[in-house]
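Sequence only, no structure available. Ideas?
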Amino acid sequence: MPDYLLDIKGLETQFKTPDGIVHAVNGVSFGLKEGETLGVVGESGCGKSVTMLSVLGLIPSPPGKVVAGEAFFFGQDLLKMSNEEIRHVRGAQISMVFQDPMTSLNPVLTIGRQLEEPLMLHIGMTKNQARERAAELLAMVGIPNPKDRLNDYPHQYSGGMRQRVMIAMALSCSPQVLIADEPTTALDVTIQAQIMDLVKRLRDELGMAIVWITHDLGVVAGIAQRVLVMYGGFIVEEATVKDLFANPSHPYTIGLLGSLPRIDGKQDGRLYSIDGHPPVLYQTPHSCPFAPRCKWAMERCWKENPLLTPVSNEHRVACWVDTKTGRAR
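Reply:
I predicted one. Tokens follow.
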């Protein structure tokens, strides 16, 4: 069993709504190794962001609540920490780049003020020291004239520059883990490529581990070493990037890969689409959550939810069917 920097076990998160309890994350378990980049993929609403927000104690309560699980980081369970204790972890040891840079920055505070605050809070820098470090951080993420730009407000930055500021803020205290929640979603493709190159360069320079949350398998192929595929609040497949693309084993993963256009000439006719709709999560599924949309579904799929089982070394899948043969595993 490898030693994990961050070790999540049996995480369950629910939201109480007027229509009932939403079971957003259902017994998710995974580990993050030191220095690795872990991709987390799946469609909107599958539990990717909620999983990582739960770990950092950022689920709004009410309506949300972590009802079960453990999240070990350097031997301490993050889920059992008080608000005061986890504040010293967030930003300093585990940082997060949120999904929308347009709304993640405070519009009435200067960029400098927002960069300086975590440096003074977590590291104990003076105002002048924090100012110098903030300028260095902006330079590190490629913002020109960094000292002058510290006095600007978020609306004076473009979307790509704001995302760079968010990355600079997340890296300001040299965290061991960076969680990037779809950081390139709202950006055009050239800026996406720049942000990915920046994160890879900083990962190599700083030696940090990264959790990269996305719905884009193309992005995962370019940045991650290992991938978790999520569906309906469950992890349905876990593999190295190379193995996932060469040998997808869950019907949902096969559907996701089939929906991507290819440039190598191996596209088999039209792009594949997954029929049906995402699951309604008002009840914990006792059958496979993907069964209503799966062309391989058999009787057992409707009665019992499969656990993650090994397909090969470092490759696990939650499926009762061998998709290569169409037979039961």
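The mean pLDDT is 87.
Hope that gets you unstuck.
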